[in-house]
Design a protein that fits this description.
With 137 residues, this protein is of the alpha/beta class. The chain is built from 4 helices and 9 strands. The protein has one domain: 3-Layer(aba) Sandwich (Oxidized Rhodanese, domain 1), CATH 3.40.250. The strands form 3 sheets. Strands 1-8-7-2-4 form a 5-stranded parallel beta sheet. A two-stranded antiparallel sheet has the order 3-9. The chain has a two-stranded antiparallel sheet with strand order 5-6. This is Rhodanese domain protein.
C-alpha cells in the first residue's frame, strides 16, 4: 500500500492552512530538532507533532503508538503530512502510516532543509529555505 502523494513545502503549508484538522508530523530525530530547528507549531494552531522515525538505536518500534499519542486515529480520515530532513524518511513514515490505516498521508518533498547543495551544505531547499514558519527548538 502506498501513500497519498508528495507535496512541495509550500503545498504542504497551504494544505495545513486549508484543512484545520490536518496534522504535520516531523519524523526527524531529537538531535535534529534541537540543532536545526522545527516547524513552528504555533503558526499551525498547535497542529504539529514530533515523532522520531529512527532513534539513535535504530527504527522506532513505537512509531505507530506515538502517532496515536499525537491524536491520530486509524481509519478517521484525518490528513497527515510527514516531514523529515530531505524527504526520504518521511516517505517511509507515510507508507507505514497508510498501511496502518492513518491518513491520507503525504510526504513533504525536500523536507525541512533539503539535500546537500554544491557547497556541501544543506539548507538551500525545503521548509526553512522556502520561508515557512519555523523556530529554533
Amino acid at each position: 500500500m502506498s501513500y497519498a502523494g508528495d507535496l512541495t513545502p509550500r503545498q504542504a503549508w497551504d494544505l495545513l492552512q486549508s484543512d484545520e484538522n490536518a496534522l504535520l508530523v516531523d519524523v526527524r530525530t531529537q538531535g535534529e530538532w534541537d540543532q536545526i530547528g522545527v516547524p513552528d507549531a504555533d503558526a499551525l494552531g498547535g497542529r504539529a507533532a514530533f515523532v522520531e522515525w529512527v532513534t539513535p538505536t535504530g527504527p522506532n518500534p513505537t512509531f505507530l503508538d506515538e502517532l496515536a499519542g499525537a491524536g491520530l486515529q486509524a481509519g478517521d480520515g484525518r490528513t497527515v503530512v510527514f516531514l523529515c530532513r530531505s524527504g526520504v524518511r518521511s516517505v517511509a513514515a507515510a507508507v507505514a502510516a497508510t498501511a496502518a490505516g492513518y491518513g491520507p498521508a503525504y510526504n513533504v518533498l525536500q523536507g525541512f532543509e533539503g539535500d546537500i547543495g554544491p557547497d556541501g551544505e544543506r539548507g538551500h531547499a525545503g521548509w526553512r529555505a522556502d520561508g515557512l514558519p519555523w523556530r529554533q527548538a
